[in-house]
Amino acid sequence: MTTQWLYLICGGLLLSSVMVLWRRELSAIVRLLVLQGVLLGALAGVLDVRLESAELGVVAVGVLALKAIVVPGILRRVLRDSAQDWGEARETEPLTNVPASIVAAALLTLLAYAAARPLVRLSPTAETHAVPVGLAMVLIGFFVLVTRRRALSQIVGFLLLDNGIATTAFLITGGVPGIVELAVSLDVLLVVLVLQVLTARLRTTFGGTDIDELRELHD
Amino acid sequence: MSLTGVPAALLVAAPIVAPLAASAGAAKLGWRRSVAIGTVAAALAVLAVGAGTTVWTAGGGAVEAGNWFRIDALSGVMLIVIGAVGGVAAWVGIGYLDDELATGRTTANRARWYGTLVPLFLAAMVVAVLANNLGLLWAAIEATTIVTAFLVGHGRSRKSLEATWKYVIICSVGIALAYLGTVLVNYAATQAGVVEHGTLDWTELVAHAGDLDPGVMRLAFALLVLGFGTKAGLVPLHSWLPDAHSQAPAPVSALMSGVLLPVAVYALARYRVIAVASVDPSFVRGLLLAMALMSLVLAAGLLLAQRDYKRLLAYSSIEHMALAVIGVAIGTPLAIAAALLHIVGHGLGKAVLFCGAGEILARERSTRIDAVRGLFGRTPLLAGLFATGLVALLGLPPFSLFASEVGLVRAGVDAELGWVMAVVLVLLLVVFIAISTKAAGILLGSGPPEPAAVGALRTSTVVPLAAGLVVVAVLGIVDWPLGALLLAAAEIVGTR
């Protein structure tokens, strides 16, 4: 029974990553990140039941709070500030169009399945069979990062990548040791906060958050 | 012979607590002389612990504090690098920041941030090299991305903002990949039953490396090389480095070049021993060599085309980290010892050069090579220090970079990598020509008749710079005092 829940959640995680490529509106993308945060919390919860580990229950609550509430909250504030003060377009302006992005996501998912083969072979359980989903999320996050021009969409790419790593970590080992998990979560939060401050500075200095403006430094 | 118990815990705590105290002091009191001297003292405390623990570590022992922290000879070498480079950078930083404040280029508030973040950076780096847990090692290296973000952006110009954005995004992604690699190692270790002290315990992993699954470890090691390679400034995720190094305040560039990059190489050396025992060793060597050679080619090419002297120094850092990684790739004890000596020499030499470049920038108001001419004619002392630093960095005798480069080539030939060493030597020749012609442009010739009205060099700038150069020269001539420690460190992560 829990196996079906596990696969359903992993399907949802992958789908929500692909949907980020499909939606153009930044506010919709932030909503997708909230959904992904909820699914990650649910994944930790399901694994908690399957592996009967008390620690994972605590982690599930923490992940839910961080990834579904706190981080999207920060992103919403960035979005609101840029819309209010600068009337900036609320769209992502990708360098590749939607069909090309979806095809790329499909290819990256295939790549993830190929890369994950040694991981599955080592311990073929229901959990490790779902690991390619985590790796695919990492690759899609990387893709978003290199093909989007707005500062906020680059932050989104980083978060997708990080969610992918968290998914992989949960699936293969039921999470890393508690103190490392804490360090990682704290780190993601701090990186997002640093990027929030930097986005605000970009806006006041460059009059926008288009990364293409950043081209004064070169050889 | 190892040291455990309370004395060990105190020895491990000292180099972490001292910079933390300096950081807290700066946060509370703001930028002032006592705080700045406190940071220098903290760096010297790190140096002292590195030197003091050689009593145990140079003989192959370790100072062990619980399962989490451990000082062995390799950690000892890195402590010495952090302490020495940190000492030079913090000392020069006193005058640097006083000048910035006096000329209104920075504010009291930003100076307070500077004073707080620099020792915090040192503390994070010390935790990284003392950690016996690979998860903690990862977390400490990642923490430096956050700590140094605002140091890189200290100048608050358009350019420094651009550099900071690239730095945070690229390094966060790189280090996230290293985290994925760490997770996979954890998985392989769990499956192999390494659970005695937690599955990321380095000493446990080395002891059980042969049991780890090769397929998983291959993927993990590739991710770790890519991730820590990003922090070390290696291709393909190197592009943050020249921007960040050229925009950061001079002492911060010195710290990033002399400490941050080598600690990432150190992480690779620790992982390599585990990887060669679990994966096909030729895969490990090939991967490291490929990344290092690509980085060396890139650095040589861009050095030839360089028009900015701070970026020139940045690409030279990529070059030297590539050399250190080649040492790690060869992996014999001789190669590791040479790579570590190279890291020590490069750290001090580059600290001198970046701090010197900061002085040149303050006087000449430009980082363009063609805007600075005839430096010897106007400020002979500064020009002399800068030139000597460049000579050291180019690997000429008597400086220790000559000895370490000779050691690297010898180790490479011994390991039947003669053709690789031939390529390396050709690239080093290109680098030599590139740097020496650019340097001649800066140092010689006739400059503008009326130099910018800036006071004489401060003693607090000249003394650390000269001391750094003397140490690099001494290390190149005599084996003492580092020799035994380097060999002990090389035995720890070197394989025959």
Description:
The complex is a heterodimer of chains A (219) and B (496). Chain A is mostly helical. Chain A has one domain. Chain A is 81% helix and 0% strand. Chain A has 9 helices and no strands. Chain A has helices at 2-22, 26-51, 54-86, 98-115, 117-122, 126-129, 131-147, 151-173, 178-206. In chain A, helix 1 (2-22) runs antiparallel to helix 2, helix 2 (26-51) runs antiparallel to helix 3 (54-86) and helix 3 runs parallel beside helix 9. The longest helix of chain A is centred in the N-terminal third of the chain and has 33 residues, at 54-86. The N and C termini of chain A lie far apart (58 Å). The model of chain A has no long low-confidence stretch (mean pLDDT 88). The two termini of chain B are 24 Å apart. In chain B, strand 1 and strand 2 (69-71) form a beta hairpin. The mean pLDDT of chain B is 93. Chain B has helices at 5-29, 33-52, 54-57, 73-102, 108-130, 134-152, 158-191, 202-207, 214-231, 240-247, 250-278, 281-304, 309-330, 333-364, 375-378, 380-393, 400-414, 418-443, 459-477, 483-493; strands spanning 63-65, 69-71. Chain B is globular and about 70 Å long. Helix content of chain B is 77%, strand content 1%. Chain B has 496 residues and is mainly alpha-helical. Chain B has one domain (8-493). A two-stranded antiparallel sheet of chain B has the order 1-2. The longest helix of chain B is centred in the middle third of the chain and has 34 residues, at 158-191. The chains are: A mainly alpha (219), B mainly alpha (496). At the A-B interface, helix 5, helix 7, helix 8 and helix 9 of A face helix 6, helix 7, helix 9 and helix 10 of B. Chain B: It is found in: Cell membrane; Membrane. Chain B: Residues 131-426 form the NADH:quinone oxidoreductase/Mrp antiporter transmembrane domain.
